[in-house]
Amino acid sequence: xxxxxxxxxxxxxxxxxxxSDVYKRQTQSTWDNLNRNMQSYxxxxxxxxxxxxxxxxxxxxxxxxxxxxxxxxxxxxxIPKYVxxxxxPDVEATIKRDALKxxxxxxxxxxTKDQMITENVIEATSPLLTNKNTDVRREAVSLIGSFxxxxxxxxxxxxxxxxxxxxxxxxxxxxxxxxxxxxLRLSTSREGCDLxxxxxxxxxxxxxxxxxxxxxxxxxxxxxxxxxxxEAFINITEYDNGIVPLLSTGVVATLRAVSYTHLTxxxxxxxxxxxVAVSLKKK
Length: 283
Fold this sequence. Notes:
- It is a single chain.
- Helices cover 61% and strands 0% of the residues.
- It has 283 residues and is an all-alpha fold.
């Protein structure tokens, strides 16, 4: 007596065979999806404005680098490249503006700021304070102002003072406002106050304040400008050498006239005017 065990019919799959078929079907489905995705893939289109600021390496490849172009540079190479763009007289204003914008975005990091000082960013930016392009002037003074609270930066700022004096009466109120902000930052230290006084910046600030507080020029857009100037006056009048440039200029009379004439001024402006007037009267 023999017991014969017959294999299952070919139409019936074993457990391992069925699992294998499921795996094959899943694998095939994955490849099909991948093929469909690859067929619908399109290269990423770089916006023109971004491409001009940070152009990507594209064919045809060449060893010649256009000095007018802000090429892709990272780490130690980035800042020297931007400096080269700023000092190149053949580079158009819009590219210099974009280079300054990028530097303004980078300068908040202290180590980067120190590297910028070492790479002569202040010297490269200072001539642009009088550039014909308004955006370039605005970005330039914003960058210069970022170095005002750095001891190393203040040691190099003398190259920017002439341009900052001119910007106090710039035709663009946006440029004047940021210039006043930069001077306020400079006035937050004793060394900065000394620089303002010894380089005739305080006198230029008085002239600008008296000019734009005149009813002919006065507008609400100038409120921030006045706040920055008056706050800087408060800082520099803490020291005798800061008060001297403000004496015998008529600024006290102007302060009183502004407080009486422009009754709708923000409270902070009226307080600042009173503080400056009291400081000057004591002397």
